[in-house]
Amino acid sequence: MTLNDIKKTAKETIGPHCKVCPVCNGLACKGVIPGPGGKGTGLGFVRNYTDLRKIALRMDTIHSVISANTETSLFGKTFKIPVFAGPIGAVQMHYSDLYDDQSYSEALVKGCAEFGSVAFTGDGVEDDVFIGTAKAIKAYGGIGIPTIKPWRKNEVIEKIRIAEEAGAIAVAMDIDAAGLSILAAQGKPVAPMPTHILREVIESTELPFIVKGVMTVEGALKALEAGAYGILVSNHGGRVLDETESTVSVLPEIVEAVQGQMKVFVDGGFRSGLDVFKALAIGADGVIIARPFVTAVYGGGPQGVKVLLETYEKELKEAMLMTGASTVQEISMKHIKFV
């Protein structure tokens, strides 16, 4: 099974909204919601992708590195690469009914776990969605990170308990989902969360807690104050607020502000191991990728997920060898240039 095989099959199965474009850059699906597009003009999605193109890798092949080690340790576990699958919910609405949220998560978790990575899983209006994804994570020894919407505090804590029972290695909350009006339309509104409530949520569990949807230094410092294990720099794929900045453009100032006091992850427009290298050079601890994994699942199930991760691993290793970095920890700003 190759990436081309996966894309060919996905074109036939993924539904009417996603075109499985040769380059997943947000241009063909501007405003396509339901579907994979960015909100309104789609600029948030488009900027995520195009701003990554403004970063070049600095090639240097006069060095002693002959084997690149892409392993990274997070959440008390070691992973083959610092690349993880992002949470996708309501797949039947946004894609096709080949999968529902539970079967999609099962395929995603299985593929990631068998490769040596981990999947963030989604949440939904119906409680069965989160419960089902938690079961999938439990079946693979807890190698998954359930992601909870910013519901009322008590409901968030109830779902944390489900994640704990599943043995999940961590738990996340996509606080940026506060802008998902589609949830309110289904009778389940979400809302922003003040720092003191966020702190109460984080203190309710011993699991590493990741706050997804941080786009400013101020937001990062509030998450740090609340006790988060880490943050995910994310604009929700450009799907919750039109004309946002790209994630990679705000990443440097956020990394500098938190000064290593918590983990910093990033998503948004990452499409290759070279893109992952750029984020690591800026200071990210890991990269989360979402839309390409939808194509991988619809085009190849768990095996498609593994093929995609193997591709990212190969590309990241090539970038490291051609720039002189032997481990992911050695990748730094000296290896890239903003152009």
Automatic annotation (TrEMBL):
UniProt xrefs under CDD domains: alpha_hydroxyacid_oxid_FMN
UniProt xrefs under Pfam families: FMN_dh
Classification via PROSITE patterns: FMN_HYDROXY_ACID_DH_2 (PS51349)
Species whose genome carries this gene: Fusibacter tunisiensis
Signal peptide range: none
Keyword ATP-binding attributed: no
Family: Belongs to the FMN-dependent alpha-hydroxy acid dehydrogenase family.
Origin: domain of life: Bacteria
Cofactor(s) of this protein: FMN
Gene3D superfamilies: Aldolase class I
The keyword Oxidoreductase appears for this protein: yes
Reactions performed catalytically: (S)-lactate + O2 = pyruvate + H2O2
Protein's recorded name: L-lactate oxidase
Domain FMN hydroxy acid dehydrogenase: from-to ranges: 37-339
